TrEMBL record:
Cofactor annotation: Zn(2+)
Swiss-Prot/TrEMBL GO biological process terms: CAAX-box protein processing
Cofactor binding description: Binds 1 zinc ion per subunit.
Positions annotated as active site in the UniProt record: E278, D362
Domain CAAX prenyl protease 1 N-terminal: from-to ranges: 53-203
Species: Clostridium folliculivorans
Keywords linked to the UniProt accession: Hydrolase, Membrane, Metal-binding, Metalloprotease, Protease, Transmembrane, Transmembrane helix, Zinc
Positions of transmembrane segments: 6-25, 67-89, 109-130, 151-169, 175-198, 291-309, 329-349
Protein name: Peptidase M48
Pfam family, one: Peptidase_M48
InterPro entries: CAXX_Prtase_1, Peptidase_M48, Peptidase_M48_N
Entry keyword Transcription regulation: no
Length: 433
């Protein structure tokens, strides 16, 4: 165990220096762009927004993102590989206590191993880079506090519930089907509880203070025939200069959350466009659909994980000699490795689906507000405030983007005018009681 911990610390330090060097090297290549303005100028011609050029600072941010993507992919694969290489299987066999106590020990070890090897990239990508490009308002202490909270929450939930999937793995021949199906009710319960118990751990939520804006939003919600959704603002300005809003929760905990930056900087029409987009997610049942599809994907990925892991344990000499029984604790590191690889390669599929529902929510918003021009202008505004590129490399979009690019959203908004042709997609959904 001492050797394992020492090697973990050495690898963490090594990753810190490598990530540091890559970050500073990238910083040198974009030094002049970092000093440039983030201003995005856009023109409106014939009631259409011309797709603006990306700001120099957005280009610098994009360069960092590409570097960090490569580093993130490498580290994602390295963590489970190194966990096995450094002796996790032998450690699992050597742990004292009953099976469940040994499982908790192994799980705890992996979670802390993952934490230490992830810290360097997390620091440089989510704190240093964002301060450098001028989009972050966060202090190091706030960033560190949220990072520790996230880990502690993940650790507590995992340790409490890890026994259930392990029992399913041991007891059921087709464990991957049972476990995959279980992710659906777990996803629903998580979506119900997260807005009430988890989100408030990181931010303060309160009803919208601006009476006029609140009334306009309620009128918009009434137009969409919803009167049971909570609309809140959250104090994101302490962390970032970016603008955003999101939909969370289901059933009686569903809510539209608008960042205070968004409320303070956007016009009334722009805020309504943002809210209409989130109402679209709600009316189109995107959260329940995503949970259900995630369950199907989980069954497929876990099934492939079982097939590949079983083959590795039976055919590779080292694993065959050190893992006496496939249905044992010593197999868990192999399962983690294979599932990590498969889930990473499934990211483009989930990103494609996410981009699709985001575009659907945009179209819903346009149909609800009858204001495609504001929707297009809004994307140009976000390019400035969020340091977004107007378009990106197709491979990068394939791997990373879970939202359409500003170029795609602006061009869609410019041309989506169903009131001119009567070709509405969501008219029945908007007007259903």
């Amino acid at each position: 165990m001492k050797k394992f911990l020492l090697n973990t610390i050495i690898i963490c330090i090594f990753l810190f220096f490598i990530t540091c060097i890559l970050t500073f090297a990238t910083e040198l290549t974009v030094k002049s762009q970092l000093k440039a303005s983030n201003k995005v100028e856009y023109k409106v011609s014939d009631n259409k927004v011309q797709v603006p050029n990306s700001s120099e600072r957005a280009i610098a941010n994009y360069q960092f993102s590409k570097v960090f993507l490569v580093v993130r992919l490498i580290i994602t694969f390295l963590i489970p590989i190194l966990f096995i290489y450094l002796g996790a299987i032998n450690l699992a066999n050597s742990f004292k206590g009953n099976e469940f106590l040994r499982l908790i020990k192994l799980t705890s070890l992996y979670l802390f191993f993952d934490l230490f090897l992830s810290i360097p990239l997390s620091f440089f990508s989510s704190f240093y880079r964002l301060k450098l490009i001028g989009i972050s308002n966060s202090t190091f202490s706030l960033w560190g506090e949220n990072y520790i909270k996230s880990f502690a929450l993940n650790f507590a939930i995992t340790i409490v519930f890890v026994i259930i999937p392990y029992i399913i793995f041991i007891k059921f021949k087709r464990w991957y089907i049972v476990l995959g199906l279980l992710t659906v009710p777990v996803g629903f319960v998580g979506s119900i509880l997260a807005p009430v118990f988890i989100d408030p751990l990181f931010n303060d939520f309160k009803p919208i203070q601006n009476v006029q804006v609140k009334q306009e939003i309620l009128t918009l919600a009434k137009k969409a025939n919803i009167g049971d959704v909570t609309i809140l603002e959250v104090d994101k300005s302490k962390e970032t200069k970016a603008l955003n809003a999101y939909m969370s929760g289901i059933f009686n905990t569903k809510r539209i959350v608008i960042w205070d930056n968004t409320l303070n900087q956007l016009s009334s029409a722009e805020i309504q466009s943002v809210v209409a987009h989130e109402i679209g997610h709600y009316k189109l049942n995107h959260i329940p659909k995503s949970i259900a599809l995630s369950g199907i994907l989980s069954i497929i990925l876990l099934g492939l994980t079982d097939l590949i892991s079983k083959s590795i344990v039976m055919k590779v000499g080292f694993f065959r000699n050190n893992i006496g029984n496939y249905k044992s604790l010593a197999t868990i590191p192999i399962l983690i490795l294979i599932f990590t690889i498969l889930s990473t390669f499934s990211d483009p599929l989930t990103n494609w689906y996410s981009r699709k529902i985001e575009m659907d929510a945009d179209k819903f918003a346009i149909e609800l507000t009858h204001d495609n021009l504001t929707n297009a202008k809004l994307e140009a505004r976000f390019m400035e405030t969020n340091l977004s590129m107007n378009d990106v490399n197709p491979v990068y979009k394939f791997w990373v983007y879970d939202h359409p690019t500003p170029k795609e959203r602006i061009e869609m908004s410019n041309n989506y005018k169903p009131w001119e042709t009567g070709d509405y997609r969501f008219d029945k959904i908007i007007n259903e009681k």
